[in-house]
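The data are passed on as follows:
___
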Amino acid sequence: MPEQNHPQLILRAARPGDGETLLHFIRELAAHEGRPQDVSATAEEMERQLFEEKAAEAALAKVGSEIVGYAIYYAVYRSFSAGCLLYVEDVYVSPACRGRGYGRQIFAYLEETARARGYAGLCWAGLANNASAIGFYASIGAAREEGKAHFLKLF
C-alpha cells in the first residue's frame, strides 16, 4: 500500500480561551471510552485550573486550522529517585484523524518537553482492555507494569 501524505501536525501549548475546545475533546474521549457521564468539568473550571492554578498543562494538536486532538500532562515527583516524570493524563486524536502518526507525534512532543525539563521520563495509565492502545504504547518504547495498565517510559 503506498504511503499516504497527510498534512503536518502542529502542536501548541493551550492558552486562555481554549477551555471550551479542550472540553469538547475530553467529552469525545469519554464517549469513546463508553463513559460520557463521567465528564463533570466545565470550560470555566478548566480555564481556572490550567491557566490560573497551573495544576496541569495542555497542548492542542492542529492540522491546518483544524484542531484534531490534545494532550493534558503534569509533573509527578518520585521520592525514591528524587526526580520527576511527566504524567500524561490524556492523549487523544479524533477518530477521523487516526492512523496518520499524529498520536506518535504528540508523544514525541511530550517526550521532548520532559527531556527539556530534565525529567526522567513519561508515565501514564491506560485501559487494560484496549489492545490497540497497548500495542501502540509498546511501539513507542513504553513498558507495561506487570498486571497493571500503567505505563512508564524512562530515558
Remarks:
- The chain has four helices and seven strands.
- The mean pLDDT is 90.
- Residues 7 and 64 are 7 Å apart (CA to CA).
